Amino acid sequence: MTHSVTVPSGATHQMANAWRRQTSLRRLYTAIGIGLLVVALGGTMWFADEANAGHFFDRLPHLLDFLSWLVPKDWNDVWRAMFDIASPHDTGTQEFNFPLGRAYVWGSFYIPEYFELMLTTLNVALVSTFIGFVFAVPFSFIAARNLTPHPVLRLIVKRFMELLRAFPEIVIAGLFAAIVSIGPIAAIIAIGLHSIGALGKLFYEINENIDMRAEEGLRAVGANWFERVRFADLSQVLPNFMSYTLLRVEINVRISTIMGAVGGGGIGEELKLSISRGFGAKTLALVLLLFTTIFIVDQFSAWLRRKLVGEQAFAVGS
Fold first, then answer.
1. Taking phi first (over 0 means left), then psi (-120 to 50 degrees means alpha), and beta for anything else, what does residue 156 get?
2. Residue 292 in contact with residue 301, Cβ under 8 Å?
3. CB 264 within 8 A of CB 191
4. Tell me: the pLDDT tens digits for 59-75?
5. What is the distance in angstroms between the CA of the first residue and the CA of the last residue of the chain?
6. What b/e readout covers 220-232, taking b as 16+ CB neighbours within 10 angstroms?
7. Among 52-56, 228-232, 271-275, where is mean pLDDT lowest?
8. What is the pTM of this model?
């Protein structure tokens, strides 16, 4: 026997009115938010126009003028610049001095200059990520609410990691550049410190969601804190730790390029110089190599994360 529930027409009318009022309020709030955003954007552009010596709005129509010099006269010069092959257009200037950047390894065998710079950028990213991982793992177990019974120690570690990720890497690199001079070392320290804070936060959030039954079992047989972390907790979270670490490698490759542009070494520094001097073939070669490297790193990292975590973790709507 089926029982039906009858809703009075007055109640239905009130529900419809309430829904319409709520919809109207949402539309009003959306319009206000968009209006404030437009006003803020307009004010920012006005300030930029007033503060910029080149007059922002006056130069805006010429935003893409650089494409005229970015197109090389001979497209083969892009490949010659990438692999340090002499150009027939060489006039003795730095624009076409491609062979001068070769890094000879043995005899006549050499590594092209831009490939060596790209390796430097990758090394900065990998070393800084490794530093971040090594320190973020123990900090994450100390900062986890369910694993550390000492609230003062947990609070200190959390605030310390917040401090490390509060400042942009460029600011930290500028500080250490004054100590260890400009170069990859300052970039590694800056990106490594920021990676500790960023990975530490991700890691301790993973730790706070682990299954505590293994932890409780080891506690019952008298295991100390280090033994519980090593045998009960680490095995549960390590695949996710590696997944986030690989994701951080992708981020740090991009950051290392930016750091190079401000004196951190690697391909970013050469790219900045090439753009500022208007060397079209060199600029395109650097951009192409950078894009290809980042694409390969992203694809390899995504493949490895799937192998570590499992395909089911990436399934949508399953």
1. alpha
2. no
3. no
4. 767 667 667 777 788 88
5. 36
6. eeebebeebbeeb
7. 52-56
8. 0.75
